[in-house]
């Protein structure tokens, strides 16, 4: 992006307004981890996932006198499910910007926790 002094589009001198608009497809994601690496073109590819236990396909319960009783058996996958919520592709400039942004937020969090512990 080339910035010009005193140009159009909300610019005033050495300032520019950036407007953040949420698209109708906007969602918040909980992230437990990330998987990915370098794409063939050198971009960074990240898949963000959540971890959870598998939902059983079938759960069998004992029924006594019309009352649901204890679980007898469960059929389904074992292990841990990693549901991939989103895939992100970043060029290295943006990857470094994201790294720096995360480093700053982590430092802010560490400083805040340190202040809380001192009280």
Helix-and-strand structural type: alpha+beta
Strand order of the largest sheet: 1-2-5
**Main sheet?**
3 strands, antiparallel
Strand content of the residues, in percent? Answer: 25-35%
Verbal overview:
With 119 residues, the protein is an alpha+beta fold. It is built from one helix and five strands. It has one domain.
Give the helix/strand layout.
Blueprint: E1 33-38, E2 44-52, E3 58-64, E4 67-75, E5 81-90, H1 92-118
Antiparallel strand pairs: 1-2, 2-5, 3-4
Describe the structure in brief:
With 119 residues, this protein is α+β, with helices and mostly antiparallel strands.
What keyword list fits this structure?
single chain; 119 residues; alpha+beta; three-stranded antiparallel β-sheet; two-stranded antiparallel ribbon; 1 helix; 5 strands; 23% helix; 34% strand; elongated
């Amino acid at each position: 992006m080339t910035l010009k002094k005193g140009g159009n589009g909300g610019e005033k001198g050495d300032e520019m307004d950036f407007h953040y608009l949420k698209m109708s497809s906007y969602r918040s994601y909980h992230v437990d981890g990330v998987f990915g690496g370098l794409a063939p073109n050198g971009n960074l590819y990240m898949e963000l996932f959540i971890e959870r236990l598998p939902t059983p396909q079938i759960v069998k319960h004992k029924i006594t006198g019309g009352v649901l009783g204890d679980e007898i058996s469960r059929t389904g996958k074992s292990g841990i499910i990693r549901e991939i919520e989103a895939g992100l592709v970043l060029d290295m400039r943006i990857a470094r910007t994201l790294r720096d942004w995360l480093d700053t937020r982590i430092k802010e969090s560490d400083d805040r926790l340190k202040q809380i512990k001192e009280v």
